[in-house]
Amino acid sequence: MDDASKLRADVSALATPEGRMVGTAGHDAARDFLLDRISALDLRPYQGDSAELSYEGSGKRFSNLIAVVPGEDRSLAPILIGAHYDSVIRSYCADDNAAAVAIALLAAEKLTDSGLQRDVVIALFDAEEPPYFHSDNMGSKRFYREQRRPVGFHVALIMDLVGHDVELPIPGFEAASGQMSGLLFLTGAESHAALPAIVEGNLPGPELPLVAALNRNVGDMSDHHIFRLSAVPYLFLSCGRWQHYHQVTDTPDRLNYDKMARICEYLVQLCQTLDTTELTVDAQATSRESIENGVVDTTSLEIELVRRAFGSALESFLTAIGMGTLASRRDLDQMAARLQGFFEL
Ligand SMILES: [Zn+2]
């Protein structure tokens, strides 16, 4: 089976009409399916003898599913790949977030026996969606606070909404907008001084144009929240919100499995580079100010990526959003604000 077919198979199994809301039979079925996939991939439990790490809150039982691709030196701080598996409504929620879970599982398969020094933790979090979003029962928060091992994390790579083609429904940009469907957005390069160079040195191919933004310009859309607040270096990958976000129309047939396969390749490449890159503590965000705004100026990285991603369409894009230039932090902030007016990034 090729990568796209593997991704399609996992999304089809996970994204059913019953959904995966906490406390429902669909949620339990998804959990059991994922535990089976984790054992089929021969991953090790992260803690104790099961990948299922349960917790309770508000009278409910939740399950984070946390497994490990073992590295050569298991004493090193691991890389974490994270994605939530619960759903917001009793419906497929294929892009949100079965797609990311499928990518995490395929990445685990590719990273097994690939010679990495570090463990890679595959973290399938429970309870990311409302009413748990950013609450004390959010799966990633409970994991970080109560279930993590003392060695902590080298870096956290979090995915959400990574299965769809990007649409830029901007008046005046309709003609070129189709060319940009392959876009992938990234935040968090500002969370460690070494990350901008790693992002720039590992760009995906032209079919997966990458645009980086400051996390503060987007907000903590997903499970990277607790890692950011805890000063863990992180990158958040997303295709942003789209018209099917949190709708019954977020179905498996609307996803782009070839794009997902490219995102998986990119994720694996990031893991390989990050594995051997030292991320020193003195260069990470630790003060309140740097946790909010970053420890490193990513202006030139962000501008360069927008230029590469849009290519010859850049000028018409800037004109369509009412901007003349893209040369400064202020321009980037303005662009982020304009884009959020068209679609929630
Ligand atoms: Zn969601």
What descriptive keywords fit this protein?
binds zinc ion; 345 residues; Aminopeptidase; alpha/beta; 9-stranded mixed sheet; 9 strands
Helix run count: 12
Q: From the 3D coordinates, which CATH architecture would you assign?
A: 3-Layer(aba) Sandwich
**Distance separating the two termini:** 33 Å
Structural class: alpha/beta
Q: Overall mean pLDDT score?
A: 95
**CA-based shape:** globular
Strand tally is 9
Which consecutive residue ranges, at least 5 long each, have pLDDT under 50? none
What is the makeup of the main sheet?
Answer: 9 strands, mixed
Per CATH, what is the topology? Aminopeptidase
What name goes with the CATH superfamily?
Answer: Zn peptidases
Reading the helices and strands in chain order gives HHEEEEHEHEHEHEHEHHHHH
Fraction of residues in H or I helices: 25-40%
* Strand percent estimate: 5-15%
- Tell me the number of structural domains: 1
Tell me about this structure.
Helix 1 packs across helix 8 (257-275). This protein has helices at residues 3-14, 25-40, 94-111, 139-147, 174-177, 195-201, 224-229, 257-275, 288-293, 299-310, 314-320, 329-342; strands at 44-45, 52-57, 60-69, 79-84, 120-125, 155-159, 184-187, 210-213, 234-238. 38% of the residues lie in helices and 14% in strands. The longest helix is centred in the last third of the chain and has 19 residues, at 257-275. The protein is α/β, with parallel strands linked by helices and 345 residues long. The chain is globular and about 55 Å long. It has one domain (3-296): Zn peptidases (Aminopeptidase). It starts with a helix and ends with a helix. Strands 1, 2, 3, 4, 5, 6, 7, 8 and 9 form a nine-stranded mixed beta sheet that branches. Bound molecules: zinc ion. The site of zinc ion (ZN) has 4 residues, from loops.
